[in-house]
Design brief:
Structural class: mainly beta
Number of strands: 11
Number of helices: 0
Helix content: under 10%
Mean pLDDT: 95
Low-confidence stretches: none
Distance between the termini: 40 Å
Amino acid sequence: QVQLVESGGGLVQAEGSLRLSCAASGRTFSSYAVGWFRQAPGKEREFVSAISWGGGTTYYADSVKGRFTISRDNAKNTVYLQMNSLKPEDTAVYYCAVRKLLATMTSHQYDYWGQGTQVTVSS
């Protein structure tokens, strides 16, 4: 069992930045890949970014590539999502999720989810 807690969301103006954190419980966090997903009102949950268990492989949705950066600190059991040049269309609830070893871009392949953190970007 892994428990995840997201933080760092908030209200920011367009072109601003936020850094989301996903803190995990459990001593085996380093063996899990972590994904970030988001869900805007009235829309389906969509993939944002993912990082492999060792941090050597990362994935990004085309819509965030070049603006968002995912990283992890296994010593702190935490994964970060640095979001720069934010746009109003980035407004959503952001969720982190974990699965064993390999990162994927498919939400149903992740086993544990956090409660989410709201990101609102004003124009």
